[in-house]
Structures are given as structure tokens and as C-alpha cells.
Design goal:
By secondary structure, the chain is an alpha/beta fold. The protein has 33 helices and 21 strands. The strands form 4 sheets. Strands 14, 15, 16, 17, 18, 19, 20 and 21 form an 8-stranded mixed beta sheet that branches. Strand 14 and strand 15 form a beta hairpin. The chain is globular.
Length: 871
């Protein structure tokens, strides 16, 4: 049986065919997939072709089924039933064909516009764009009323009074009734009674949500998407024009979602120095009912030009665009791309978006994203667990608590007489909660030790604080804009006291444009985020306190919440979606994801795949360097700092460096150990000897990583035979995201295993949680911790997984494409253990010799033969 055609733009390799089939089967069977495909093997194209082929085929299948199930009266003759089916079929296909012709018209106008622009060699909107005239910075001058008024809190109704009035659409601003109706009609905001939230049977048109960490990674994905051409999801409408036959392919309908920071086109809102929070709040302020009409954002469509949103939808879907392209469409049409992209989600087949917009429930609700029955693909998923834990964790320092209280006092002194009703009550509650947190944290400054556990109740033990409804208080801080107003007024007041020139007090009659810039994240917002964690179930996370050194040598006391169990926060996505696929270049060890993200899923609902590499086996040399002439090489915490161990390491690396042509990268477990080794080698002369063999560079927190990498590369280009040696750190910027392709990374060395510090309160809590859950799973609750899951097996397994995931990320920097070749050396006796080796990616593990117990002299000989064979 021939392999399935996934419409790959090139002839796929066997591993790509296997990968695409696995993606297709995972979606078809409605499973959770954990897939690993090394960088350089065409992972993105495989994900695109496997998933979109399934989507188009599924649409065709559903269409055919629907046509067969057209409701016909039982007593109708067969010819009438067939006529009804055919009429329905033609109607649907005609509507689809009209949509495609409209998009093709947009593409044609854009092509002509680009041709005119190239001919004129000037940038412009072109005649193909219908554009609304909007005011710019030179057209409208902002008013100069009493600036202090902007910092006053609006009246805040009680929860009972404001239901249905002040409560906004999923946390969005309070629009005027006319604006609200228009935005709901256009699909730009979600109605308060959105059927998708109330009807469990309601589903959107089937689509794929593709998520990655950053917009730059999504832009690379969009570039790959432009290579792919697929058959139409529905059968084509028969063309009546013999000179214009029906096309055999159909363009992919894709939309990229982003934040206001990425998509806002109002220059008065999205200023270069404005933070994400500032842009969000300024945008919402310009749409509130109290904002004068001539001050509202001119890019929000009015009832007179709602067709602009439809034009935007057509232009957005006519071509495959990244986030910057989408912003340009909005600018040319004169319509806000942040809001106008929302109704474009419905007809899209593929929606690309960054991690936060998918993982945060509030973000999905604000964007109107429903995952029910949809396909979710998360790329670069090796960071997924950390991302979920990071989103749900929070911290606040004692200094921030004191600063927030001081700022509130300053604010209250100015606006106390204007605070009425709910505002007065809630602001008072905020002060009391902060006082309670300060009362707990302040005595810890004089405590011995660097940290410890915290019981949630101890944080809110202040007088009467236990009677405060934290849910309402957190909502108040957010909806009232208290954080931004307090911080904005304090900055304004201090600027006025200092005076702009000669100590003269600044006039209150000034424009909003001249106000001092607020911090990236207001202190009260950080406290709000911390308070949110106090509402989480206690079994999901733990609270800690810690003292850490600061620049002024005075310890900084921090209260921290750590999410221990990411599975409940990701479960809503899994339970809603038809299928979820986690993909990455280095996902090993794969079992870590099933244990921590999907402990509730039966094995039958999980599918995993670790692909090999497209390079031939002769292009990769992998060795575990476990000993030298003096005995085993061990770089554990107890032995790695000995003078003897560091000297032996230097001798081994020098011997290897002499055989390597091109670039050699050595990764250490930490910056502290890297610096310790460097100092020792400077004393015993190893540094100068290595420098004589290769140009040597050292990673450092004090030097920009881009500069170090640039000079390292230049040294290799200048003399590839001599090459260069770069000492770096696992987990540093050079261990992830930077490609050591070709001559930049002919030999990658990892020294030791970068285990985290397991003695910190956070790691102890995580370990205890994992061991406890393992005992529950095995029916050993209440036992002493013996048996299969006892004795800390689950926590040790987790620590090894975290360690090896970091190692795999580092060594994955070497091979970046089919023609690349490199050697990988793992320095530590523990790399000879089967338990450690099984956590390596399959393609690397396959290149390890059986047993893999390697002495330095033997490995150096193998490296020499490997490089001689590449000449």
C-alpha cells in the first residue's frame, strides 16, 4: 500500500512521512500526542501537512455525510429527494465559491498594488485598499483639563447593583450601548449571553490552533505555511467558463492573534515606551462612555463604516500573514487589527497564537476563543510545563508591599474626600490586606536561614482580614484600575514636587502626553496577582518565603507561590479540544509530560513518537566520557570542585580540542562552576594551553550573549582549522535558541549533569507532592513511603527529567540540517548508566556504542578518526 499523500511541498523523508501519519492518526482518533522531531528534520512542515490534510479530508467527509442526510419527507419520490440534495449541494458550493472569488479579488488587487509600488519605488497604500480617514497626532490636540482628575477612581457599584450594567464583556471595557451592539454584531466582542458559553452543544467551524512561545517563532511557522498547497476541503463548484477552469487547490485560511502591544495602530496609545499594561488600559479608557467622542480611538469602527471589518477579514484571510503583516493591513484600512481579527477567527482554518493567549483562560475568553471540538497543536512544547507553572505562580517582595502601602497613603491623602461607597470600602480592604502581609513578612528579615514554607492562613492573619472576600477584592483592583491610578498619581505628584527646571513646581495644567511613564507592571498589580494565588486549592501549590542578596547587600525578603501541579490548569484545554499535540525538537524524556500534565488520562488516550534524524549515522559521533587514566570522572556536587577533578577535566578537554576542526562548545552546569573552573585553570596554566590550541571565549552574565557569539563565529571563519572554543552554561542563553550549525558546533561537550538544587524549600515541596501523588496512584496512601513509588522515586525521576531535558536542549544545538555533522561528548560517569541514557533523544541514544563506557584516551582517538573521515 503506497504511503498517504500529505501534500508535502518536497519529497518527504521516511521519518517525515512517519511523523505526518502520527499527527493525522492522533487527530483522527481524538488523542493527546507527544511528538519529538529533531531540529533540521522539517518538523514544522510535517505538523502543517499532517494536520491540515486531516482537516481538509475531514471537512470533505462531513460535507458528503451532510448531503446524504438532507431531511426529506418519507413520502417524496426518489427523484425529488435527489433533486433536493443536489440543490442544497449547489447552494453551499456556490456560497463557498463566492467567498473564494472575493478573496482572489483581494489577492489580485494586492498584487497590482505591489507592482505599482515597485514601479514607483515608494511605499503607499495603493488603490486596492479602501481606507477610512482618521485623525493623526497632528490633527487632534488632547485637552489640558485638570490632570489630577484622571487619577480619581470612577464610582464603583456594589456587586448587586452592577450586574448587567457595569460588568463588562469578559473583562473588557464598558462601551456605550451603540458601540457594544455594533462590536457584538461584528463579532469583535463576546455578548454577555454568548451561546458558546451556555450551550455545550454549540461548536465553531472546525479549525487548528497552533501555538508557540513567541511571535518570532510563529513568523517562522507562517513562512513554512506559505510553501504548502492543499486540495479544497469542499468539492469545487463546476466552472461554466472553459477558459477559467476550477482550481484544484484552495488557499489556506489563516489568522494570527496577538496582544494590543503587537497590533494596536493608534500612535497615541502604542508608544515605544508604553508597557503592555499601559497600552491595555489606555485603549480601554478611550472606549468608555465617559470619554468624549472626539477623544475616542478613531480606529474602532463606527456604525457608518462597519464594512471595514469585513474588508479586514477578507484581506487577512486572502493571504497567509504574520503578526506584522496583520498590523499593516489594519493601518492601510484604518481599522483596529486587534479587534478586527476576532471575527476573522470563525472562518479561519488555522489560528496561530503565542503561549499566553492559549494557556490563560482569561485571555481566551477576552478573545472569544472556543476550543470545543478543535485541534490544538503546541510547538516548542519542552517549555510547556514551565510556562503553565510560570503563568499560575506569583511573588511579591516585602519592599514592594511597603512601597504599595506608602503609595496608597499618598493617594488617600489626596482623594480621600472623593472616595465614596464601594471605593472607600475596597481601598480600605486593600490596605488591611497589605498590612497583614507586611506583619507576616517583616519579622522574617531577622530570621536565620534563607527561606521556608508558609501556611496560607498565616499570610492573612491580620485583624478582620479573614472576613474579606478576596475574589471580589481582586476583581475590584482590576476593574477599578486602582493600581495604575495610584502609581500614576504618585509619579505625577513626585514629578510636580521636584519640578522640571530649577526646582519649580510643575503646573497641573499639562497634557497626558507629558506625564511620567509608569512602571512596566504596577506594584499593586503584582500584589493583585499574588492575592489571586491565595484563592487556588491548597493541594495545587505551596507558599514560601526566601531571603536573597540584593545590590546593596541587604537581603530581599520575598513571598512566593509555586504551582506544583500544572495538570488542572491544562486539563480544561485537553477536555475541550478534539485532540492536543505537544511537539518539539527535544522533548525527551517523553514520560515526564504524561506523568505531570496528563496523570488523569489512560494510556490508550496518549500517543508518543520520538523520530530519528535525517542525517546519516556517519554524520554523528556520540560518546559518554566516563573515566580517564586516574579513574571515574564524576562531576557531582561533592567532587566537581576539587582541584584534581578540574585539572583532569582541563587535560581531557585540551586533548579533544586538538582533534576538533571548527567550533567546539563546552556546557557547564552553572555559571558558578564555570567561574570556579576558569579561576583554577588560570592558576595552573590550563587556560593558556587551551588558548594556544584554540581561540577561547567564555560566556558571562556581564557580557551580552550576542557579542560573545559574534566574536566566537568570527574566529572560526578566520581560521576554521584552528577553530574556536566557547565555554558556556546549560540553561544560559547560549544553550537554547542559538544554533551552532555547521562549523559553529562541530563538537558539543556537556560537563556533568545539571541537577537543580534539591534542598531548596520549593524543590522539597515539589518532590513531596510528586511522591505523594505516586503513592495515591498506587494505592499506598498513608503508608511510610515504601514500595514501587516510595522512597522518593517519583521526585528523583522528576529531578532527572528536568536535568536531562536541559542537557537535551544543549546538545540539540549541534545538528541543524541534513548536511550538518558534529560530535557530542557527555563528560560524567553517570552518562554510562542505562537509566540516564534512556532519557536521551532516540537519535542521539542510537549513536552511543553498546555499554558506552568510554575512557578519555579512547574517546579522543574516536574523535580524531571522526574528523579525519570528514576531510
Amino acid at each position: 500500500m503506497p504511503p498517504k499523500n500529505f501534500h508535502h511541498p518536497f519529497q518527504p523523508y521516511d521519518i517525515q512521512q512517519t511523523f505526518m501519519q502520527a499527527v493525522y492518526d492522533c487527530i483522527e482518533q481524538g488523542k493527546v500526542g507527544i511528538f519529538e522531531s529533531p531540529t533540521g528534520t522539517g518538523k514544522s512542515l510535517s505538523l502543517i501537512c499532517g494536520s491540515l490534510t486531516w482537516l481538509r479530508e475531514h471537512k470533505r467527509k462531513k460535507f458528503d455525510e451532510a448531503m446524504q442526510n438532507v431531511e426529506i419527507d418519507d413520502d417524496e419520490p426518489a427523484w425529488m429527494a435527489e433533486h433536493a440534495r443536489e440543490s442544497k449541494r449547489r447552494e453551499i458550493l456556490h456560497m463557498r465559491a463566492e467567498f473564494e472569488r472575493r478573496l482572489e479579488g483581494v489577492r489580485e488587487r494586492e498584487r497590482k498594488t505591489r507592482e505599482r509600488e515597485r514601479a514607483k519605488q515608494v511605499a503607499g497604500g495603493g488603490e486596492g485598499w479602501k481606507r477610512r480617514r482618521v485623525a493623526n497626532d497632528d490633527d487632534v490636540e488632547e485637552g489640558k483639563g485638570d490632570v489630577e482628575d484622571q487619577f480619581a477612581l470612577d464610582d464603583y457599584d456594589s456587586d448587586e447593583d452592577r450586574e448587567g450594567s457595569r460588568r463588562t464583556n469578559n473583562g473588557q471595557p464598558q462601551y456605550s450601548a451603540e458601540t457594544t451592539r455594533l462590536l457584538e454584531k461584528l463579532g469583535m466582542i463576546i455578548p454577555a449571553t454568548d451561546e458558546r458559553k451556555t450551550d455545550d452543544n454549540a461548536e465553531e467551524e472546525l479549525k487548528i490552533f497552533f501555538c508557540s512561545r513567541t511571535h518570532s517563532q510563529l513568523s517562522q511557522f507562517v513562512g513554512e505555511l506559505q510553501r504548502v498547497h492543499l486540495p479544497a476541503g469542499l468539492p469545487p463548484e463546476e466552472s461554466q467558463d472553459p477558459n477559467n477552469p476550477t482550481p484544484t487547490t484552495e488557499e489556506i485560511k489563516q489568522i494570527t492573534l496577538g496582544s494590543r502591544k503587537n497590533l494596536c495602530i493608534n500612535p497615541k496609545v502604542n508608544k515605544p515606551n508604553n508597557s503592555q499594561t499601559t497600552i491595555n488600559e489606555r485603549c480601554m479608557e478611550l472606549q468608555q462612555t465617559k470619554t468624549p467622542s472626539d477623544k475616542k480611538c478613531p480606529y474602532i469602527p463606527s456604525k457608518d463604516d462597519e464594512s471595514l471589518v469585513l474588508d479586514f477579514k477578507d484581506h487577512a484571510l486572502a493571504s497567509i500573514r504574520d503578526i506584522e503583516d496583520l498590523a499593516q493591513v489594519g493601518k492601510k484600512l484604518g481599522v483596529c487589527p486587534y479587534y478586527a481579527s476576532r471575527p476573522t477567527v470563525a472562518p479561519a482554518e488555522l489560528v496561530t497564537l503565542p503561549y499566553p493567549l492559549l494557556l490563560q483562560k482569561s485571555a481566551r475568553e477576552a478573545l472569544g476563543i472556543s476550543l470545543k471540538g478543535q485541534v490544538v497543536i503546541i510547538d516548542e512544547a519542552h517549555n510547556l510545563m514551565d510556562a503553565v507553572e510560570g503563568i499560575c505562580s506569583a511573588q511579591v517582595t516585602l519592599a514592594q508591599l511597603r512601597l504599595a502601602r506608602e503609595s496608597l497613603v499618598i493617594y488617600l491623602q489626596k482623594f480621600r474626600n472623593r472616595l465614596k461607597g464601594s471605593n472607600r470600602m475596597y481601598v480600605t480592604q486593600v490596605v488591611r490586606v497589605i498590612d497583614s502581609l507586611v506583619a507576616f513578612a517583616a519579622p522574617l528579615e531577622n530570621e536565620e536561614g534563607s527561606g521556608g514554607n508558609v501556611q496560607p492562613g498565616a499570610l492573612l492573619a491580620g485583624k478582620g482580614v479573614d472576613q474579606i472576600n478576596l475574589t471580589k477584592l481582586v476583581r475590584y483592583i482590576s476593574e477599578s484600575k486602582l493600581a495604575r491610578k495610584v502609581e500614576g498619581y504618585v509619579a505625577f505628584a513626585k514629578a510636580g514636587e521636584d519640578g522640571p527646571v530649577g526646582g519649580q513646581k510643575k503646573s497641573h495644567q499639562t497634557t497626558q502626553e507629558s506625564q511620567p511613564a509608569a512602571a512596566e507592571t504596577p506594584t499593586l498589580t503584582q500584589i493583585q496577582n499574588f492575592l489571586t494565588t491565595l484563592m487556588n486549592p491548597s493541594k495545587e501549590g505551596r507558599f514560601f518565603w526566601s531571603k536573597e542578596p540584593s545590590n546593596d547587600n541587604k537581603p530581599t525578603l520575598t513571598l512566593r507561590y509555586l504551582l506544583l501541579d500544572p495538570s488542572p490548569h491544562f486539563r480544561e484545554i485537553v477536555s475541550s479540544a478534539r485532540a492536543v499535540i505537544l511537539a518539539g525538537g527535544t522533548m525527551s524524556p517523553l514520560e515526564a509530560y504524561s506523568h505531570q500534565l496528563f496523570p488523569y488520562l489512560p494510556e490508550t488516550q496518549l500517543t508518543t513518537l520520538s523520530c530519528g534524524h535525517i542525517i546519516p549515522r556517519t554524520s554523528l559521533l556520540v560518546r559518554a566520557v566516563t573515566s580517564d587514566a586516574s579513574g571515574p570522572l564524576e562531576f557531582n556536587y561533592k567532587t566537581r570542585s576539587s582541584t584534581s577533578t578540574m585539572q583532569r577535566l582541563g587535560e581531557a578537554l585540551l586533548a579533544v580540542a586538538k582533534k576538533v576542526k571548527g567550533g567546539m562548545v563546552v556546557f557547564f552546569a552553572s555559571y558558578a562552576y564555570l567561574e570556579l573552573v576558569r579561576k583554577q585553570w588560570e592558576v595552573d596554566g590550563t587556560s593558556s594551553r587551551i588558548g594556544a590550541a584554540k581561540a577561547t571565549f567564555w560566556d558571562s552574565r556581564a557580557v551580552a550573549v550576542e557579542e560573545t557569539f559574534k566574536t566566537y563565529g568570527e574566529a572560526i571563519v578566520a581560521d576554521e582549522d584552528r577553530g574556536a572554543l566557547l565555554f558556556s552554561v546549560i540553561g544560559g542563553k547560549l544553550s537554547e535558541g542559538i544554533n551552532f550549525s555547521d562549523a559553529l558546533g562541530r563538537c558539543v561537550v556537556v560537563v556533568g549533569l545539571p541537577f537543580p538544587n534539591l534542598e531548596t524549600p520549593e524543590w522539597r515541596a515539589k518532590g513531596a507532592f510528586l511522591d505523594g501523588r505516586a503513592e495515591e496512584r498506587d494505592g499506598k496512601v498513608g503508608g511510610a513511603g515504601g514500595g514501587v513509588s516510595g522512597g522518593g522515586k517519583a521526585s528523583r525521576e522528576h529531578a532527572e527529567n528536568v536535568c536531562m531535558r536541559a542537557v537535551n536542549q544543549a546538545i540539540g544545538r549541534a545538528i541543524r540540517h541534513k548536511g550538518d555533522w558534529a560530535s557530542i561528548l557527555l563528560f560524567d560517569s553517570r552518562y554510562g548508566q542505562a537509566r540516564v541514557q534512556k532519557k536521551l533523544p532516540g537519535w542521539i541514544k542510537e549513536s552511543l556504542p553498546d555499554g558506552s563506557i568510554g575512557r578519555v584516551d579512547g574517546v579522543v582517538s574516536d574523535v580524531a578518526k571522526f574528523f579525519d573521515g570528514r576531510r
